[in-house]
């Protein structure tokens, strides 16, 4: 990455990131000024105000130009980056709402300022991942997100489960980063550049792929394997249940939604910008590489759902469910059809709402019972009818049943796989979804068919209630008007001529 002059750079591209960075610093300074006995809600509110400001800045920035905005060769604000950045901001905003009344209990933990600041730093890393077009910038964003997440998992130092989860997360993440860098070294060594589009240009010239095609494949496989850690898919998936169980619930939700979305943004940009048009034996590179992506997808769907069936801890159950959903989201990349980015974006938005909703209801049950056991939801229908109906919608959506966002998310992916000629993927998706009914319906059985230990009304914390309402509305609205959401995605991708991810600079 070389810049001729800092004055020639388009600094406006960094406005949203700068706002997030300044907000994180203000959060830390606010902690210094607040008395120890004071409420920590203003810290979360300050974080939410910063996200709203960055959100507005990004929307205004994208709407004031009809060209792709670039910061040198490092960052690229196109329709793809815009949509994924907005998803990341909305997700982090909802995380702060969940933590508004305490990170995991009904009382402050004493680490609110660090929690909010680290979440903002993680969001900053995610925004960099969504816009980055250079391997160095991508890795910086990846590590900023990952390191912040490591600390967020272990922020409750008095908890042995949190400490164990954080240790496993760090060790697995370090190995995954090393694997990714080893694969990236092949591309940089063969091309002599680090920009994703320039790598593709160099490798596509002459007979480079004929001579070094196997080495490019090795680099691709190592990079894909390393990125499986960030999206929580096979093979780097074993950290997920322990980290989800040990982390504060707000952090668990962050990892399941925001971190996963950032990982997929990274993966999509990397594969489509660098590998998409590389010629290999008269075919495009991705046509030959898709079987490897399909293998990860199938393994993630089956392993995640089968292991989730054995869980009685709600956080571990949704952890294995998250692995399965990573497999679902990989299907469009494996089937490689023209609508794959739309399908993946649609699924990630649907997954955001239904996952936040499920965790918000679980948060309410935990604050009441002090347990994440499946039985903590017993008798919920009598104690909190709205929460019972809400978790019914969320579980049906996660299972992929009609009139919910999850149904249409899986349906579009299913049709895309068939259209691309990948019947094995489509059949596996159907079988895996049927397997998931076992544990999703086990949740509903506790809610509606098992008596609780008390009939006392269950009261939900304010922030958690707001998240539940937003997620409930989002899950149903997407389920009822799926085409409107797809049309919106296509408008964002193509608005102002900003979506040229496939063409890049070819």
From TrEMBL:
Primary subcellular site in the record, as a coarse category: membrane
TM regions (residue ranges): 12-30, 42-62, 82-103, 115-130, 136-155, 167-188, 215-240, 252-277, 289-308, 317-338, 344-366, 386-405, 411-440, 461-481
InterPro entries (UniProt xref): NADH-Q_OxRdtase_suN/2, ND/Mrp_TM
Catalytically driven reaction(s): a quinone + NADH + 5 H(+)(in) = a quinol + NAD(+) + 4 H(+)(out)
EC nos: 7.1.1.-
Transit peptide listed as a keyword: no
GO BP terms, alphabetized: ATP synthesis coupled electron transport
Superkingdom, natural source: Bacteria
Keywords: Cell membrane, Membrane, NAD, Quinone, Translocase, Transmembrane, Transmembrane helix, Transport, Ubiquinone
Gene Ontology molecular function: NADH dehydrogenase (quinone) (non-electrogenic) activity; NADH dehydrogenase (ubiquinone) activity; quinone binding
Domain NADH:quinone oxidoreductase/Mrp antiporter transmembrane: 132-436
Membrane topology: Multi-pass membrane protein
Subcellular location: Cell membrane; Membrane
A GO CC term attached to the entry: plasma membrane
Function: NDH-1 shuttles electrons from NADH, via FMN and iron-sulfur (Fe-S) centers, to quinones in the respiratory chain. The immediate electron acceptor for the enzyme in this species is believed to be a menaquinone. Couples the redox reaction to proton translocation (for every two electrons transferred, four hydrogen ions are translocated across the cytoplasmic membrane), and thus conserves the redox energy in a proton gradient.
HAMAP family listed in its UniProt record: NDH1_NuoN_1
Family statement: Belongs to the complex I subunit 2 family.
Subunit field text: NDH-1 is composed of 14 different subunits. Subunits NuoA, H, J, K, L, M, N constitute the membrane sector of the complex.
Name listed for the protein in its UniProt record: NADH-quinone oxidoreductase subunit N
